[in-house]
User: Fold these one by one.
Assistant:
Number 1:
Amino acid sequence: MEGERERIAVISLQRLGDLLTAARITDALAQRKTTASVELVHWDSTAQAAALLPGVSARHTLPFGALRRRSRIHPLAALRHLSERTAAIIGARGFDRVVNLSSTRFACWFAPTLLVPHGTIVGPAIDGNGRYYASHRAIDYLNDWGTDPQLCTFAHADLYALAAGVRLAGFAGLRDRAGRRDGPVVLHVFGSERAKDWRTPDDWIALIHAIGRDLGRPCVLVGAPDEADALSDIAAHSGSRVVTSPLEPYLKLLTDATGLISVDTVAIHLAQLVGTPTVVLRQGSARGHAFIPGAHAICLDAVPDPARVADIIAVARRQFFGGHGPSDAPVQLQPGVIARAGVCDKDGLLGLATPEWISAGPQVRAAQRRDASWRAIWRDWFAGRTPPSDAVAAALAGSSEQDAARRQRVIAGVLGPDAAAIARHIGSAA
Amino acid sequence: MTRTPSLVPTLGTPRDPPGNDVTSSSSPAPSVTAEACTLWLFEDGTSAAPAPPTAIACSRAQVSHWLAGQIPAWLWARRTDGIAVLRDPSCGRELRRMARELRDLLAPRTAAGLLERVADSDGPLREALAALPGSSAPTFADLARSLATNPHPEAARLARLAWALEHL
């Protein structure tokens, strides 16, 4: 250590969107008085996102594709290169603290190689005997519980931040919007997985017309360069314009935008960094339930069919203009459409909840209360406290039979010895 | 890229092939990317256009010359770093055979072939490879297990990196 100050490596060997969620962690670590420097280790394909993270004094890349190709030649070709890259990252001395934000086995094996002797590893790792270990209970929770959409869910980024000892509520975002929300509505039409895209180009054209008619805003279509032709076709029939730009100009566009409607998670995470109101259109197996975008977004999911234009417009009007929009009455969505907004609790942990301005039945509200009680239980456990057994019993009693069985299994796996006492309590309560 | 002495020498240094019958020809510009040296073999009289952007195009006549024992020093020196031998998928049977032969010569995967490349080093990798059956084609996991038993200070770190690559 430089005096009492630490050289810190943050490993984010993830995709673009995941890497963006590390902004809160790099920012908080850089502001500590005990920090000498925060350096980022990321895949070479995510350089654009890495450049946006605040508080980072050096960015080190690992070449994912090249390592894969070298691996196919012979083991030495890849090992030699990775060894050289590792040595270059370490420099004259290693890191006092390594914060690993990636749960992959590659990252868990790699992370400890950056440490000085007796340095500190934060997050998941694998020890010299091949045993997985986590530095914090929140990481255990993440790996044991996963993201079952029917159960209580935390954002991955929150759990990693918690494990890193970062104050969750302290991050104010990348840019001050200064109250400006008079730009266009930005639409991100295509996601990385076509199966999760929302409807057809004709539906997007209808949505753009509706935004102009009902919200009084022009639209900008954003996408990757290889999507330019498809986006231009939509723009030609809707009077919108197309932008295919790197992330930095995209961030500027979102900073001034009235709002974002997106199926793409990179755009969604980017918008959350600058506080842009967002409507998330999610399809796919999890139907968006397990995706927690941030406090400025609302997820609009439909089971089994995608959301309709009328629902999107109704939610966007409220999300973009708040209580000052044309209507303050509760929004009535068509049956089968689920709307859940990103919320931030008093501890800074993100979650999802049905907003008060959405008409929702008693079942939805009851599920939300159960979710809140489960989050409280897990927060106790993250903080090193055994959750009150009567609270666990009450939460289990309120779950459906199927959920309760799964939750009991997870409790047994995660809480370990504590589970026995809780099980006894549940048994006596029954 | 900066080379740091603490790790690199343990992996061995490139050396000339046995004998002095290597044709010295000028080396293409050294790669500044993470990509390994890639050779693209194509039939004489055809275009090398399908070659990957960073590949070195090699005509059949050139490959034939190399296989006759005239491998240039710059190419031989890159074997430890890894040489990918690719070919035009539309090439004939003879060039496919020559590609296999060149691959076996420049990029063998057997423990014995890999050991030959680090023979000059005294690091843990040479000892780890020497402990493996010579005819086997070691995986990253094989290397990692072998390194894990080595007392050299760098062995544990290399074993970790090998395990990481096993899961890439």
Note: DSSP finds 17 helices and 15 strands in chain A.
Number 2:
Amino acid sequence: MPVVGAPVVEAIDLRRTYKTSTGSLKRKSLEVEAVRGVSFAIEKGELFGLLGPNGAGKTTTIKMLITLLIPTSGTARVLGLDVVKDARAVRSQIGYVFGGDRGLYERLSGLDNLRYFAELYGVEPHEQKRRIGELLEMVGLTGREKERVEGYSKGMRQRLHIARGLLHDPPVVFLDEPTIGVDPVGAREMRAMIASLTDQGKTVLLTTHYMFEADALCDRIAVIARGEVVAQGTPGALKSLVADKTVVEIEVYGVNDESIERLRRVEGVSAVSVEERDQLQLLMVQSAVGAEITPALLAQFDGAKIGRVVAREPTLEDAYISLVEGDS
Amino acid sequence: MTAGTAVLGAPRSSSLTSFFRVLFVGGIIVYRALFNWIRPAIYIPTMLGSPLFQILFFANLGKYSGVGDTNFFVVGNAVQVCSMSAIYGATMTLANERYFGTLAQLLATPANRAALFLGRTLPVIANGLLVSVFGFIVGALFLDFSMPASQIPALALVVTLTVVSCTGFGMMLGSIGIRARDVFFASNLAYFLMLLMCGVNIPIDSLPGWMQAISKALPLTHGIAAARLLASGETLGSVAGLIRTELLIGATYGFLAFALFRYFEASSRKYASLDRF
């Protein structure tokens, strides 16, 4: 039975193990622990972010919450309903949006995709037309709804995914990397759309790789790494974890892996991350405030061409890097 | 505030209304989405062209070899060509959910699974029937196929039931396609297996014993036999046993198909098999 005042989404010590095998003749069984004891609670109307690198366990966690996977152990509840025992009831109360190109019927128009899912969610026939029109307007696909999805751009597909996830006006919405691969303008529009969901009273769980997105949208964030929640709190609270650090950004043209490894070993360095930017790599090196390490850093590049070097205050992204590298 | 209270939510249909809407409206929409040969440029050569030449080929081969009469080949092939839809079409309506990456979205909906499953069979049956009717028209126009006009309603009934039965078998392959990759290989195999073993062109009693045993467990076999008897003027009552057996075989495959669909759905949650492809 639902509990008064209980969180809308609740994960308690969720674990999920995958069994895989390798080899053709001599098959070898392997066990992979994708999620290792994840716990969090999301309150009504909250926009909660789940951040983590690829393979951290974000999608597996979301799949358990939306009933597509059974946890190996632990409990998860949505609106007080158990995701294993009350799977069908949970499904009717949630919307979910996966990022990426797939998951739509390519040969159908955007409108028919929505009509089909409206039927699957049991939306009343006379309500369907109004609701679909409203959602098409909201995601900016009005006028394009009769075109086949196979001709849609990535951004249009992603917007259609969002409309599909909201057809039955669910109180809880799960968004798994909804802006992935979408161009900057489209992604900005999508973020505005996501922000508006909590204004409508919905509770949202969002996974994303983009820190600025999480910083701008989320009320609270859980950082997940290697299948475990390594930190949880408001964006401000997470940033404060690296308040005693400074970040040196170095633009390098053609840096190799050995140089990066050497950087990690420089005394005072607590974390290093690399961002590929066309011809150059942007290195972000974290160290304690006041540590004069820039000359030592610049000495590690084996003659690679160095561009701009800037020291700055840490951001949420730096806090994230520090957390997932296990140095915070 | 009670956590379990859904404060939002679009008005929902009653369970019964939703069941029938998923069955009929949903079935047609999703068939258009998943049936690969729906465009006329592909439909005509595949669903009508292939059966046309199959019927012409076997009827002329029989005439040239001096075995059997034209009616034997026309009825056998005109009924068997329904499997273009009942085998391939049925496989597509389920297995393509996985190929197109829509299976996870589908399984995360609360839709009634029986409605979702059965709704896919209706357009497959209608299409199979259309192809078979086309086969009989080809026989009448090009091969001097003839039968008493009074037998047409009974023949239509038997052909419809045979298409339904064959669709049960096709849905079983489709359900396997939810879990296994390359299931269309099995569909090809099934199509030609039926051509060989169901008495389409070779009388069952001319087949080796082991093939006869398999043929008795396949759809089409009893339906084709009943259709031939009706075309030769026998009454519906005299083929009732054959019709019952055909339906029993089809229903068995149909139930097995749904059981497999539900099993693979459940196992996908347990073993994460949706993600393996």
Note: Residues 16-271 of chain B form one domain.
